[in-house]
Every structure is written in structure tokens, then in C-alpha cells.
Amino acid sequence: MTHAADTVAHARNTPELDQPYTELGLKEEEYARILQILGRRPTSAELAMYSVMWSEHCSYKSSKKHLAQFGAKTTEEMRARLLVGIGQNAGVVDIGDGWAVTYKVESHNSPSYIEPYHGAATGVGGVVRDIISMGARPVAVMDQIRVGDPDHPDTHRVLTGAAAGIADYGKGLEVPNVGGETVFDPSYQRNPLVNALALGVLRHEDIHLANATGPGNKVVLFGARTGGDGIGGASILASDTFDENKSVKAPKPVVGDPLLEKRLIECCLEAFAADLVEAIQDLGAAGISCATSELASNGEGGMHVDLERVPLRDPELNAGEILMSESQERMMAVVAPDKLEQFLAIASRWKVEAAVIGEVTDTGRLTIDHHGERIVDVDPRTVAHDGPVYDRPYAEPAWQAELNADAAERLPRPGTPEELRAQVLTVLASANLAGKQWVSDQFDQAARGNTVLAAPDDAGVVRIDADSNLGVALAGDANGRYTKLDPYAGAQQALAEAYRNVATVGAEPVAVSDCLNFGSPEDPDAMWQLVRAITGLADACLDLGVPVTGGNVSLYNSTKSADLPPGHIDASINPAPVVAVLGVLPDVSVTVPSGWSRAGLDILLLGSTAEELSGSVWADVVHAHLGGHPPAVDLAAERALARVLIDAVRGGLVDASHDLSDGGLVQALTESVLRFGVGARVDLAAVLQRDGIDPATALFSESGARAVVATGRAEAVEALAAEHGVPVTRLGVTDDDAGLQVADQFGIEMAELDRAHRGTLPALFG
């Protein structure tokens, strides 16, 4: 882009002018379509807008066709709680008594590689603003971080920076972090995944939609000044495989200011409460390009903007750069003229800079002038909603059958109790199973708000109403190893685990948000993974009766190089469909943690264990192996288990509840023991006999639809399980002094167990 004014008139008169559309992430055929839409070449400002809004990140052009399954596979019963569904900044779910919550999980992957601290921090800020724009107060965040090999020096840079960024931003907002994931895998070495979730609370009557309506209403930009942050980020970083050797791949990092974000939150909420705004749109990816085109196209008319009125941090920015800037802590509001003075007064009181930059029109056009010259004149729908929709080719990878044939069940298992004990300690101390307190301890422990449960418990629990104790539970999960082995089943397993985690605290699962992290859609292998995962997730949501309310798709997460071309088994990341499940708790005082706090309780295993070791942490850590098929998904069994867990918790039948997933039974027992420092004595004999398995399989299998509970009313839990057809076995008892004792196999004292499980991350990262 040139700094000279490229007006609409100039564009009409210079059709031959070469434009850098490929550098902005546009394909030749996409540029040709823009020419057809406009009947002329675009101005440089229009080109900036189309490029950023037609990117994968903003348009979902490669996934939109397949994402339609989420709506198509939603029943009226599933929609009963949905107040706002897919298509707005975030979905809104009715939780009863006039209360609603809005929540969303999305990605900030490439920025978190370029500059981990600011990339992760502003990822939190971006999803929080999505929540604010719906009229909700943000009350909790979660994080899902995936980085490379824990021993790689760059992993230290990425993880320490990302964790600190998430922690500091949350601290500045005074919004508690209630859980998340930290996963290590070499496939994420040059392409970390940093996904953030935000939860907001509002009354039904407070819901606001981002629609620019009412000709004559003013368009107000408020918050931080616009700078050169992240220019081209959404268009470039989300339209090509990441390669740090290409300078164009590194837009200037976006720098966040959480204290300004906090003031912006309060400003928005006060303006909403006083009924001063018709709509608010957050500015994140694609900045003003997104906000103006989305607001205008979702409204009933058009919009005019005078770009020179935008407050700038860098006066040297040209029009295209202003439109593409991804500076944080900015919002755009539509305000009626008679309410403008009040709105500006609120902004001033919160020390939030605000400027009227335009107004809503009845022209059906989005027009933008810069210093009196027309630089944009477009139908806003063509920018925001009418981008290309691709039917990308996809096919099962050539390597998939061989990968699936290489089952982990054939691998040697420990033959003696001593060997089993050694492997248990090795697995428990591995980076992916080790305690994540090193990460969670960085979060502000003083800013707990209405947090009832948080990490390391299976789900975060937040009180919504202090009078009734109404609350919600949140859990998020993804398993890249499972999804690589079988994308359909892997996505379903992510949903099943999050669903189980919510049920363990006694919450009824009601809704889903997802962030789909996959490779290049131009690689048929990665596209096949994406399509199969979407289909699997949509099918499972339909079966479980939990609708998808919104989310994010992040593509081009690839490690492309000369050595790993498309079609290679490791050309992309292990695909990671992050699934976040929301559950409702009528009374948050009736919930349980994921570990037992007293001796003398019976430990029960709910569910049955199969010989399912492929994709397991045991196979990875002990044998450096990935192959076979992931554990079978039994959604009927998941529903039955959830019913037992919910009824047991709400009936006061259990003191603790912990699902079985990564690491299997031994991981669940270890985390339950270490949660409050109360040991366990268990005997596997009944499980071995009933399920026909060996001790290693009993401890390491990752079969789904299982949980461990501690109870002083074992008979009542057993009767409840029998009522719902859930297998149940008495494993043993809780014991203050036991550590972890497995009869006829091994014993591990509490201190050794603690060192093995909690010492890994501090040793790696300080």
C-alpha cells in the first residue's frame, strides 16, 4: 500500500494499477471476485478490508460449509436454552431465574509464537471483549495451551511468556482463571496453540446484539488509540502456513493494557445499563475493517465513517493501516444523537477516550472518507459475509491406514510389580501428566470473585447468583493424539471428557463452545481431519443433546518446510479440537472437588475398563509410540455415567469425584490423593477379574465413560449406578498415611508421589 491517497475515483481511473493482493493473503481468484463485485479495482483501503475480512480467521471460508452441521444437527429441544446462537460475537445460554451466561473459546496461536507474552495476553483480552459486547460482565477465564517438546529451549520461551501473559492480563482485569490445559508435543514446536475462554454473566433483558440500526445514529470509537499493532495479522497469519523466516509473517506484536481493558469493561456495562447504546462491537482481529463492516451489514442500512477522526497513537499510519490495525482495548458503539452526550460523559468518567467517527445511514453502503476524500464505497455484506466459500478437496491421508494398524496394545507391558511401579512413576512425572501448579500458581489467587472450584479440580465452578447460589461449571478438553489417530472419534472424545468433567462436580451439561485448531485447508490431509472432526463433534453433540453456541476455527497450523511437504504424516500439528462444555448447578454449595479430604471413605470405580492403550500417555511416555485406534466412544455410557455423577453429587452421596481420561486410573488416583494429601489403599483384583485385563491395563488404559468417587455411602452409590446400568467396583479406601498403595503390586509414599507428580514443571521451567 502507498501512503498517497488512493480514492474511489482514482481506482476507477487506474484499472491497470498493480496491487499487492497476494502479500495480503488473497488468492488471484479472490482478487478477481473483488473486481467483479466492485466493477472496478479496489482502493488500497478497500483491498485492506477485503483481505482481512476474507481471511480464514474472519470468514471461515474453508470451514463454513462443514460448520453448518452444528446448526443442522440441533433439535428444538437443544435450542430451548439458547438465547443467542452461532453468528453473534458469542452465544448466550439461559441458566434459569432470569439469568444467562455467555461464553466462548477462541485462538491466538500465531501471535503467541511471535511474542508469547503479548500474544497470549491479548488473546484473553479479545475473547473478553466478545463477552462484553453481548452485554455481559466477564466473571471467569480459562486457558488451553499447547507447546512443543518440554526439553526444547524455545518451549521455555513460549510457555513462560504465554503463562505470564495470561496471568498478568487476568490479574489486571480482576477476572479469575478457573482452569485449563497445558499440553506438550513436538508437533506444536513451531506452532503453539494458545486458546482462551471467557465466561460472562447477564440478565435476559441485558442481551445486546451487534447491529448498526437507525439512520442518523452516531458511530463512536472508544478505548485505546489506534497504532501499528498487528497490521495484517488476521489476513496474513491466518491465510498461510507459519514460517518464521518470512518477514511478512511477523506483524508488529499487539500490546495489551489490562488496566485500560478494565476501565473499558466498566464503561461498556454502565452504558448498557443506562440504555445509551444501540449496539457495541469489539475490535480484535481485523480492527475497524471488521467492526464497521459487521455492524453495517448486520443492520438495516449503511454506515459512513470519517477516518481522520480515529484517534491515532501513530500519526504516520495510512488509511489501509488504520483499517487493518489490531490495536487492543477498542470498542465501537452505535449511539442515538440524544444519548451521545451521556455516553461521552460515561466514557470520560472512566477515562476512556471516545470519538464520533461516523453515523448510520440508509444508503445500504459502507462509505469511508479520509481527509474529505472517498477511499471506501462498498456494500458491507460483500466484505463481512459474502466472501468466498470453498469446497476444499479432502481425502483420508495415505499414511492413515498404516498409522492405525500400528496398535499400542501389542507393546510390551510391565511383567513384575517392580517394573509396574517404575513405569507408574515415569508416567506420573511426564510433562503431560505432571501437576500443572507451576502454571496455575501464576494466576492471581486473590482475584477469585465468585469462584467455587478451580484448577486442579475437574471443572471450574462459578457462582452466578449470591441469593439462590445458582452457578455454572466449565471444562475444556482436546486430545491431539486421539484426533490424529481418528479425527471423528478424537473430537467426540474431547466432548465426552469435558462433558464428564462438568458432571463430576454435579452440573448438568447444557452447551458447547469449540476452537478447532487444524493444519492447512489447502492440504487434503489436514482438510480431511477437519471435516471428520466437525462431523464427529456435531454428531456427538446431537446424541448428548448439547448444542454448539459458537467458537472459533484456527487453520494453517502447519510445520511446513522443505523436509515436511503437505501429505507428510507430520506436515501439520496434531489436530486439536478444543471443546468447552458449560453445565448448570442449581446450588453451588452442593458440589464436590476432585480429591478426597478425609480417611475412611470407600473408593468406587464407575464404568468398565477395556484394553485401550493406543494414543495413551503410557504408550507415548514409555514407548514413544503413536498408533492404533483411540479408545472407543460410547455416548450412551457417557450419558448414563453423567446421570449417576450428577445425582450422586446433588444427593450428597459422594465426597469427591474425578473422571478418568489421560493417564487412566493411576492418574485419577494420584490427583485425588494429592488434592488434599489423603492417601488411598486400592485392590485391582475385582476389576481385573470382571473386565479380563492385566494390572498395567487397569492402571494405564484410557477407556472413556469412567470416574472414581469417594463415598461414605457406598451402597447408595452402587444402587444408583445399577439403576442407570453403570458398572461399579469397590476399589479400596482412603487412608491418611497410605500414599498410594496398590495391593499385590506396589506402594508409593506420599512424599515420593508428590515429588514425582509436582516436581516436573518447576524443574523444567524454574
Protein traits:
37% helix; 29 helices; alpha+beta; 766 residues; seven-stranded mixed beta sheet
Helix/strand layout:
Layout: H1 8-13, H2 28-38, H3 44-53, H4 56-59, H5 64-72, H6 76-79, E1 82-84, E2 91-96, E3 99-107, H7 109-114, H8 116-133, E4 137-147, H9 153-173, E5 177-184, E6 193-203, E7 218-223, H10 233-237, H11 258-273, E8 279-283, H12 287-298, E9 302-306, H13 319-324, E10 330-335, H14 337-349, E11 354-361, E12 366-370, E13 373-378, H15 380-384, H16 400-405, H17 417-428, H18 437-440, E14 451-453, E15 460-463, E16 471-477, H19 480-485, H20 487-504, E17 508-517, H21 524-544, E18 548-554, E19 576-585, E20 602-606, H22 617-623, H23 635-650, E21 656-659, H24 664-676, E22 679-682, H25 685-691, H26 695-700, E23 707-711, H27 714-723, E24 728-735, E25 740-742, E26 746-748, H28 750-758, H29 760-765
Parallel strand pairs: 4-5, 9-12, 17-18, 22-25
Antiparallel strand pairs: 1-2, 2-3, 3-6, 4-6, 7-10, 7-11, 8-10, 9-11, 12-13, 14-15, 15-16, 16-19, 17-19, 20-23, 20-24, 21-23, 22-24, 25-26
